[in-house]
What does this fold into?
Amino acid sequence: MRNHQKRNETIQMIHCYKLGGMNIVLDIYSGSVHVVDEVAYDIIEQYEQGDKAQIKARILETYDHVSEAEIDECFSQIEELKQAGKLYAPDTFAPMAGTLKQKTAGVVKALCLHVAHTCNLNCSYCFASQGEYQGDRAVMSFEVGKQALDFLIENSHGRRNLEVDFFGGEPLMNFDVVKQLVAYARQREKECGKNFRFTLTTNGILINEDVIDFSNREMSNVVLSLDGRKEIHDRYRVDYAGKGSWERIVPKFQQLVQARGNKNYYMRGTFTHANPDFLKDIEEMLSLGFTELSMEPVVCAPDAPSALTKEDLPVVLEQYEKLAELMLQRHREGKPFTFYHYMIDLKGGPCIYKRVSGCGSGTEYMAVTPWGDLYPCHQFVGEERFKLGDVWKGVTNHEIQNEFASCNVYSRPECKDCWAKLYCSGGCAANAYHATGAITGVYEYGCELFRKRMECAIMLEAAKTLEA
Amino acid sequence: MMIKTLETKNLCDSAKNGGCGECQTSCQSACKTSCGIANQQCENKQD
It folds into this structure.
């Protein structure tokens, strides 16, 4: 990475890295991506810091085959890119960071409905404490869910697309209410000119033909929890008798996905200290016929047995690179698959508002408990201090909401010099809170993983583009 | 010598018409525990 600060305080940032046999240069503030040869890579790294004559001399000394004219041509190309605002672009976003987020202030567009604070599995690594979120077991009534949907519609103002995730615990333990709420939302969306997109996140135990028909008709997305290899999955994902769930759920997931056609789904795994070599679990998912995959690092206390350790980190980083290689190989063979964190659309990705503002937790996005209480997101449920209000009175804890509203990538000093900041927008507030005690902190372990994922994702896009 | 520039969204331009908010909430789709925004699709018809 190279951060350049000029005398007039204009800040520029590039990130140069080598991966998949390519030399890649990212220009952070324009969002540009360049694939360059070895000599151009060396020149770009030095260009803004050194005297051009000295750079030329160093390049001539290092590379026997390069002529002065070729170096001059490279200098010209760099200058053209600078003029076009695609290399060493200045940071023009910092002064407007706060106002960018203001544009979406007061609008709610997504709810995570905790329709069941109970679960039919007893996974010891569960961030939701087996679905109970450090509280009592409960299911959401239709009346509470209905009020939550009304709250969402009323506070969505001009937004047309509204998202609701049926979450838990295990939401299928309250499936009748899920069905009633979807029917209610479908009725309201016509009256209000809204478009509801539903997601169901399930462990699969209660999937049956009714669930499959309903989900494939009504759910824009279905998230299915599977950790990959049977021995890995059954280590943590057990029932209350301690019996693994892999054999019960895999055929159900296969049936659901087969019936789903082209609609979105994710096979979502968690990797832990037990399987930092999670590529094997991805391969297992592929061999079971699943192609839309997500694999997430466990979220737990640092002293938990499942917690990823410092020693796991290099293994995990290597797995991400090998995963990218596998994806490229399968892409070339005409057998592509999707990895959630490697989906990146360089042309159609998020605008600068989103890149600065982040996930929207506590402002655009909130979680609703079975009792109708509002929290900034599902990971804060059970943390009483973060309770925002309820679905009847709306947000009443403005102090906490303002904390979330003021969170943006420029409000985190640790992100200042990070090249990935406009790809992650400061990261997860819950992860930051659990790691540092402050939502404006950063979870550095997660940052390391994120940066590697972005390098891999961009490399994959670059390779596909150049090979097309 | 080669510099190949890929076609990307111009972030400066997106400051003009962006921020419509119609895109998906980052955490809603699959991860739920380790969000970033890079893999989100823009749904702004004007951007």
Observations:
- Chain A touches chain B through 95 residues (CB under 8 Å).
